[in-house]
Amino acid sequence: MKILKFLISPVFMGMLFVIFAASMAAATFIENDYGSSAAYNFVYDTRWFELILVLLAVNLAGQVITLRLYRKTKLTIFLFHLSFILILAGSAITRYAGWEGSIHIREGEEQDKCYSTDRFISHKLVDASGTIVDQSSEKYYMSLKSAGNYRKKIRGAGAGYEILLSRIVVNAAEVVEKGGAGNGAIISFVAADSLARQTFILREGESVKIRDISVGFRSGEQNDVSITYDSSSFYLSAALPFVRDGMMAGESLSFSQGDTAEFLPMNIFRINDISIVPQQMEIHGDTRVVSADVDMRETGENAFIFSVRSDGSPAEEIIMWDNENQSFTSGSAVIDGKTLEISFGSEEIMLPFSLRLNDFILDRYPGSNSPSGYKSALLLVDRNSGIEKPFTIYMNNILKYKGYRFYQSSYDQDEMGTILSVNHDPAGMLVTYAGYGLLILFMILSLLNRKSLFNTVHSGFWDSAIRKKSAAALLAFIVTGSLNGWSQRLVPDRDMADEFAKVLVQDQKGRTEPLFTLSNDILRKVTRENKFQGLTSMQVFLGVYLDFDHWKDVQMIKVSNRDIQKTIGITGAFASFSDLIDLTTGKYKLAEQVGEAYSRSPGSRTKADKELMKVDERLNILYTIYTGGFTKIFPLHDGSLNWGSPEEALKTALNRDDSVFIANVIPVLSDALRSGNASTAKQIAGSVREYQSRFTAYELPSQSRINAESLYYRMMIFERLFPFYLAIGILLLAGLIIMVVKGRKSPLLFTRILSWILFAGFLVHTLGLGLRWYISGHSPMSNGYESMIFISWVTLLAGFIFSRRSLFALPATAVLSGLTLLVAHLSFMDPEITNLVPVLQSYWLTLHVSVITASYGFLGLGAILAIITMILLSLS
User: Fold this and answer.
1) What are the angstrom distances between the C-alpha of 747 and each of 475, 731, 783, 799?
2) Sign of CA dihedral 41, 47, 51, 53
C-alpha cells in the first residue's frame, strides 16, 4: 500500500519529471554527436523510457482518484489530467499499432510496396540442403555507438552460434590488397559520368551494369566491356570504340570495336560518356575495409562488421554497408557447411492498393535552381474495390485513403521520380487528438472558471503584509537570473549610390530585389556589420565592384579566430583580400586548411574549421563582387527567366544598339561616380530599371514594394528594438518594485509614461513585421530569424493583454521580448529576406505556424507570472 501511495504522490511525479527531462536532454546530446539512430537506440526506443511514460500515466490517474478530481467543482483540473492520460495512451497506440515509412515511384511506374521508417536486423541460418534452420527479426537502430552492444545467440542443427557486432568503420571504403595463393583474382576501378562517381570491386567471374554498359571480369558472359589477365598484366577489350588517356604523359589513344588495351592504373578509359579508371588489380588478392579519412574523402557509407562464432570453430566476419540512400543491406558467410545471412534495413510493407505516378512537376524560382514547389500527379488504383482515382499530392495536400496518409516528401535528382511519406495510424491519431481537444477545453474553462487560480490571483494580491518581503525576494531572483587611404580608393557619393541601389537585381537564390538589399546582405556576411567605416553597404559594394585595385587592400573580411589571424599574418579582427591572396603568385594562404575543413564530415568539424569556411566564403564573396557575379541586372534574351551580369547579357543581346547600351552602362556609371555627376548617375539607374521592366519575362516587384524594402533596411527596426525593450523593461520592473515596497496601489506616473513609450516601440515592431510581410509576399515566419522576431512581438502583445490583471506582466514580457530579439541577432541567425521554401507554400500551414509560434510568447509570459505567483504563495 505504501508503494502504491508513493507511485501516485506529487513527490513521485516531480521525480519522474526530473528523470524525464534529464533523459530528453541526454538524447539531444547523443543525437547531436552520434545521430538520431543512436538517440533512439539508447533512449527513445528503450523499455526504461517507456516505463517512465507509463508511470507518469499511472501517477496522473492515481491523483484523479485520490483527490477526487472527477467532482463537478474540479472539472477543469480533471480535464487537464484526463487529456494527458489520453495523449500518453495515443502515443502508446502509435508506437505499437501504427507505422510510418516511404514509397518511391518513378514516372509511368505503378507501386504497391513501401518501406518502413523503422529498421530491423534479421538473421537466417540455412543448411546445405536449403532448409531454414533458424531465423528471427527484431527492430534495431544501428548507430555508430552500436559496436559491442548487439549480441545474439542462436542454435541450429545441434550447434550453437554467437553473432556479435564487433566493430564499425566510419566513412568506410573497401580496398583491394595482395592476398595469399589461395585467393582468386580481384580488381577495383572507378566509373564516373557527368552525374556520379562510384568505385567497383569485381572478383573473377563477376560482372556489373554501369548505366547501359555491362562490365565483366572473366565472367563468361557477353559484356560490353571485358577485363582479362594473364601472368604479366591485365587487359580491357570492348564491343564499343573507346579512348585511353594517360594521366601522367597526357597521351591519348583511340581504339576500335573489339580492340584490346592494357588495363593499368593512371589511365582513363572513355567509353561513350562513361570514364573507367583502374585502381588496384591482383592475381591473388582480397579486400579489406578501411576508413577513408586518411584519404580525406567522403564515402557516405559506414561498414558494420559482425563476428560470427560457432562451437569450436574460428570466427567468421560478415560485412554490411550502411548507406542513407539504401533501404536494405545484407551480408553472409558459410560456417560449418551452413550459410548464415544477416540483413539490416527497412521492412517491406504491401499496400492493399497501388499508386501510379503519371507526372512529377517541379517549379523553380526565376533565375535559380531553388525549387518553389513540387507535386506528384498520381492515379490511385484499388482493384479489389474497382476504384481508379486521380489525385495530386503536393506540400500540405495529403492523399488519405483507407487509413493511409501520403505526404510529398522528396524527389529523384533527375526529377523523374517522387518519394512520398506514408503514415498508417488511425487509432493512435484519434485518441491523441481527443487528448488535445480536452486540453484545449481545459484551457478555455480555466479562463472562465471564477474559482481558478487565474481568476483568484490578481494585482490586489500584492496588497498584503508580505509585500516588502516578496518584492525583495523577487528582485533578488531577477538579479541573479538576468581605415586609411580614403583619397586613393573610389568612395561613391552616398546619394548617388542610393539612387543606383533602387535598381533591381536577381540574387543567387532567384529572388528579385533592390541592389540595396543584396549589398546589405553581402556587407553583413563579409564584415558582420551593417555599416563599414561610416559607409553604407551600397557605397562599399560599388567601391569594390568599380575600383577593386584599391579596395583589395582594405581590411574588411571578418576573421574571429586568433589562430587564423596568425596564419594570415594580421593583428586585428579584419583581413583584406590581399592579406589572404598573394597577388604576385596567386597563392591562397588558407588553401590547405580550407581544403581539410571542407573534406571533413559536418559532425567532425571543429569551431576553427567552421570559422575557416566562413572566412573562405567571405573572400569568395568579395571576388564575386569584383567579377560581376552579383551584378545580375540585365534580363537574358535566351528564352529563360534568368538575369545576368553585363558580360553575360552581352552574349544574348538582341541587336547592336542593345549591345552598346549593356556594354556602356557600368563604365558610364563609374565615370559619373568618380566625377560626382549626380544627374548622369540618376539617368543610368533609370535607364537600367526601364530596360528591366521592358524585357523581363515575369512580373517585377512594384515601386511601392521596392521603396518599402529600402525603408525597412534603412530603419534597422529590430536591431534597435532589443536594447530599447531591455532598457524599458528593467526600468518598469524597478518602478513597480518600488511601488510595491511603498505600498502604493496605483501605478506611478513614471511607470505609466514608460508603458506608453513601450507601446510606441510595440507599434514600430508591428510596422517592421508588416513591412517584412509586404516585401517578401509571405508571412514573416519562414525561417529562424523571422520566427524569433514574431515570438518577440507576440510576447509583448501578451504583456499588454494581461497588464491589467498583473502589473508585472508588461515589464516581464518587455525583458523577454528584448532577449528574444537579442537571440535573433546572434551570428547564427540570418536576417536575409528569402523566397519561401516549398513546404511553407500553404495558407493553412501559415495559420498553423503562426498559432504555434505565437503560443511561445504566451507560454513565456505564463512561466514568468507562474514563478512570481509561486513566490508569493510560498511567502504568504
Assistant:
1) 18, 13, 39, 16
2) positive
Tens digit of pLDDT for each residue in 491-524?
Answer: 889 999 999 999 999 987 778 899 999 999 899 8
Q: How far apart are the C-alpha atoms of 209 and 204, rounded to whole Å?
A: 15
Amino acid at 613: M
Strand 285-291 relative to strand 197-203, pairing: unpaired
pLDDT digit string, tens, across residues 775-791: 888 888 777 888 889 98
CA distance 474 to 733: 10
Distance, CA of 830 to CA of 824 (rounded, Å): 8
Q: Which amino acid is at 391?
A: F
Q: Please give the sequence-ordered ranges of beta strands (E in DSSP) within 383-429, or none if there are none.
A: 387-394, 399-401, 404-411, 417-424
Rounded mean pLDDT, 536-562: 91
Q: For the whole model, what pTM was predicted?
A: 0.64
**Tens digits of residue pLDDT in 583-636:** 777 788 888 888 787 766 666 677 888 888 899 889 989 988 998 889 999 999
Q: CB of 283 within 8 A of CB of 185?
A: yes
Residue pair 517/530 in contact (Cβ under 8 Å)? The answer is no
Residue among 873, 833, 110, 71 nearest 513 (CA): 833
| Closest by CA position to 450, among listed 75, 63, 861, 873 | 75
Amino acid at 406: F
**Closest among 119, 99, 116 to 404, alpha carbons compared:** 99
Task: Output the average pLDDT for the chain.
Answer: 84
Give the DSSP H or E segment for 257: none
**Of 712, 676, 635, 686, whose CA–CA distance to 500 is shortest?**
686
Least confident piece of the model among 80-94, 123-137, 147-161: 147-161
Fold of 172-297: Tumour Suppressor Smad4 (2.60.200)
Place of cell 505567483: 869
Task: Provide the grid cell at 693.
Answer: 521592366
pLDDT of residue 474: 43
User: 825: which DSSP letter?
Assistant: T
- Residue 96 pLDDT exceeds 70: yes
Question: What does the alpha-carbon distance between residue 85 and residue 434 come to, in Å, rounded to a whole number?
Answer: 11
State how far the Cα of 369 lies from the Cα of 470, in Å rounded to an integer.
60
Contact 408, 418 (CB under 8 A): yes
Give the separation between CA 515 and CA 519, rounded to whole angstroms. Answer: 6
Exposed / middle / buried, residue 766 (Cβ in 10 Å: 0-12, 13-18, 19+): middle
Residue 591 region, left (φ>0) first, then alpha (ψ -120 to 50), else beta?
A: alpha
Strand order in the sheet with 159-169: 151-156, 159-169, 301-310, 313-323
Closest CA to 558 of 544, 575, 534: 575
CA distance 674 to 290: 61
Cα 250 off chain centre by? 43
Helical packing angle, 47-66 and 10-34, nearest 10° = 150
Q: Is 219 within 8 Å of 230 (Cβ atoms)?
A: no
Q: Cell for 731? A: 526600468
Burial of residue 256 (CB within 10 Å: 0-12, 13-18, 19+) is: exposed
Top pLDDT among 648 and 748 is at 648
Q: What is the CA radius of gyration of the chain?
A: 34
Domain boundaries along the sequence of the chain:
2-99+427-448, 101-112+351-424, 172-297, 458-482+716-875, 494-710
Put residue 171 in one of left, alpha, beta given phi > 0 → left and psi -120 to 50 → alpha. left
Instruction: Compute the half-sphere exposure of residue 829: CA atoms within 13 Å on the CB side of its CA.
Output: 18
